[in-house]
Amino acid sequence: MTRSSGAGGRGGRGGQGEHGVGADLPGGGPEGALSHALGAVGSQLDHCVHCGFCLPACPTYIRLGDEADSPRGRLHLMGAVSEGRLDPGSPAFQLHLDRCLGCRACETVCPSGVEYGYLLERARAVAREARPADRGTRLLLGLVERPIPFRIWMALSRILRRTRLPRLLARHLPSQGLAGQARFGMAMLAASEPVFPNGLEEAPALGGESVGTASPDAPPGKGTRVGVLMGCVQDGLFHRVNQATIRVLEANGFQVVQVPGQGCCGALHAHAGALDGAREMARRNIAAFEAAGVDEVAVNAAGCGAAMKEYGDLLADDAQWKDRARVLGARVLDISQVLAGNGRTPRSGAPVEGRVAYDPPCHLLHAQRVVTPPLRVLNAIPGLEVTEVRDGAECCGGAGIYGLTHPELGGSIGRDKAEAVRETGAPLVTTGNPGCAMQIGAMLRLDGKGVDGVPGVCHPIELLDESYRRAGFYGLRGRIGTKGGRS
Ligand code: SF4
Ligand code: SF4
Q: Which of 117, 253, 323, 440 has the highest Cβ tally under 10 A?
């Protein structure tokens, strides 16, 4: 992916937006310095031909009907700031950028190849420089940056989750105001519980017996050295998915190597416009995966995979790191690509009989353009009937902490997703991103239809892992019961 730089002369940008976007600002001054950062990618903004094809794909435009809450409108605001016509601290710039989910559905449908996600991150950096993020966001980003306090937070969350109190609070707390936000947070935590703490075999929804014989398929890995990104929230609340990922890779003939020194991928920081923090995390991961000598980096969280693939862009202005960042970024693959991309086919295991609804994470579908590999992974499981969720290309409303920071809009988008999941009638929904799993799981609990019969949420790799366990690929260590342990 090549990006051009240089402000370049732009003119004739169509339409004067609302909120005084067209009002000229005096040159120089602090807003001029701030707009320089956007001006550096100004020629990227010029790729937009204002056709409006992206409008019907945008969840915020669909619901709010305001041009300024569409991709085209936001690009127009960015253009106004880059040209010094709009103050980056203005309510219009702050509000409409803040309301963007960063789902990048607009990129998929754009005929001009506007790299909206790249522009959004830079625009948010400008917005944050003009007006700092709220305290909650700063606290969260600060926690993610500090490994020890973060681990303590995750450990406390797991303890709370084990008490089952989050389920109760999600059901009984008021839905408005601060209590409403706490209720949503509790619903997200409850949604991170293992759906099958004692193995899928015991789940009434999914049948099939343990076969106990290894498949004769030739493993496709052929000894390729793979490092697995453990992540922050993924390892804190979905450790079981990381463990399943390692088992599945080894069962497919990959050599999984330890990667000491790795940490958070930096996606949360980048999406919030905290690019310096994101760069610091990227450098740490590049050094760690380089030192481990991996051929491929397997990522089982779509948001993290998208961020790591774009390390080259993030560090493009860092002479010392830019080449290393591009090399590492090119080695990053979603776990479904490792197993079922590049002409590979995962081994098939024993039957797991039942129905599952698949919902693709935006950062897999739109940011990474990975469409079929997750379905190929699921289709490698004998007996499993896979149904795609209606309007699967639309965001679930999770978008990092969007559900917490934008309870109304995120809630409306999330309720629609929950409805589409319920329509499938499947007892399980599967998606490859922890944020989406928690958002969908939370919305299924909070959509007013009650928690009885709420579809469970799991990662596709957990299903393949269970299929392998039943096939006897893991021998005695394959029992995945996690009662009382970290899950
Ligand atoms: S689809 Fe692309 S070119 Fe058309 S308005 Fe949207 S961003 Fe601009
Ligand atoms: S990233 Fe998503 S929410 Fe933001 S403008 Fe694009 S489609 Fe709309």
A: 440
